[in-house]
Design goal:
This protein is an alpha+beta fold and 314 residues long. The protein has one domain: 4-Layer Sandwich (Glutamine Phosphoribosylpyrophosphate, subunit 1, domain 1). It contains eight helices and twelve strands. It has helices spanning 23-45, 50-63, 107-117, 125-134, 148-160, 236-241, 244-255, 259-273, and strands at 6-14, 83-89, 95-101, 122-124, 183-188, 194-200, 221-223, 228-234, 278-284, 289-293, 297-304, 310-312. The strands form two sheets. It has an eight-stranded mixed sheet with strand order 4-3-2-6-5-1-11-12. The chain has a four-stranded antiparallel sheet with strand order 7-8-9-10. Helix 2 runs antiparallel to helix 3 and helix 7 crosses helix 8. The longest helix has 23 residues, at 23-45. The two termini are 29 Å apart.
Length: 314
């Protein structure tokens, strides 16, 4: 078993963009990943808990307009940003989750307040935002969450949308965008406590009200000190159907798997067999980190106590 802390983050997984990244754009993503990683690492270095570390890392990613979470999230079919997030404490399985948030810059912080200050686990929409006000979290306009790049993307998206008649469902569109679906973090602290957090703007052009796997405990986010902490990104509907984050933990608990084997089997065998793309990051109770993806790109970074931090894209 490793001593010390372990931390991993991700910024989404997907296909190669049709227009390759420039060196400057790659550097920008790597720099942002390392900045978010450092936000969590500083807390772990000073003896802070895993829950604080994943919240800090995901908050940094939500604040970075390069990623599809918080400010810079993709837009739904009605041209608004709708945000989802979850956070989970592996010590006692406490969790907080939110969905359909339109007026909060950092939904992961609201998820944390639900974990700490609510008898519930999952709040949505206006009810969640009223709770945010009660907790002292300031609301913002939806427009303030929309960046010029996402607005331009939305304009291109509208040209591809089928004529909406009677609220017909929209389709996932082939847009030339970075493969960013979700951001997340998993951590083990010096005391062996595990935590996970995930945040997303969902799928570009999604039907208003659609919720993917990210805020669903056991699907996109899970943590249990006895097994592992997981944050997923990819085809949210399939990660929901397979309860993917809990599936990794169950492989450890009931199947006797080591973390790397559990992640590899899920990502490289089970999900592709269903036609699902994506990836996940995980850290187990030993402090081992496993990162898997069946897509050409996954934005990710990781660090362990006493080791150098690294960020990768391809």
């Amino acid at each position: 078993m490793r001593t010390g802390y372990s931390l991993a983050i991700h910024g989404g997984a997907g296909a190669l963009p049709r227009v390759p990244f420039t060196a400057a754009r790659e550097d920008a993503y790597r720099h942002s990943l390392m900045q978010a990683l450092a936000a969590g690492q500083r807390l772990l270095e000073s003896g802070g808990c895993a829950l604080d570390a994943v919240e800090a890392a995901v908050t940094a990613l939500e604040d970075d307009p390069l990623f599809n979470a918080g400010r810079g999230a993709v837009l739904s079919a009605d041209g608004t940003a709708e945000l989802d997030a979850a956070i989970m404490d592996g010590c006692d399985l406490r969790a907080g989750a939110v969905a359909g948030i339109r007026h909060l810059r950092n939904p992961v912080q609201l998820a944390r307040r639900i974990l700490e200050d609510s008898a519930h686990v999952f709040l949505i929409g206006e009810g969640a935002e009223r709770f945010a006000v009660q907790c002292g979290l300031g609301l913002v306009s939806n427009d303030s969450l929309i960046t010029p790049d996402r607005l331009q993307q939305y304009q291109a998206l509208k040209e591809q949308l089928p004529a909406a008649r009677g609220g017909s469902a929209t389709q996932v569109l082939d847009l030339d965008e970075p493969p960013l679906g979700t951001v997340g973090a998993v951590a083990r602290d010096h005391q062996g406590r595990l935590a996970a957090a995930t945040s997303t703007g969902g799928t570009a052009g999604k039907r208003s009200g659609r919720v993917g796997d990210s805020p669903v405990i056991g699907a996109g986010t899970y943590a249990d000190n006895q097994t592992c902490a997981v944050s997923a990104t990819g085809h949210g509907e399939w990660f929901l159907r397979t309860v993917q984050a809990f599936d990794i933990a169950a492989r450890l608990r009931y199947g006797g798997y080591r973390l790397e084997a559990a992640v590899a089997e899920a990502i490289m065998q089970r999900l592709p067999a269903l036609g699902a793309d994506g990836g996940l990051i995980a850290v187990d109770h030993r402090g081992d980190i496993a990162i898997g993806h069946n897509t050409p790109i996954m934005f990710r970074a990781s660090v362990r106590h006493g080791e150098a931090a690294r960020a990768d894209i391809y």
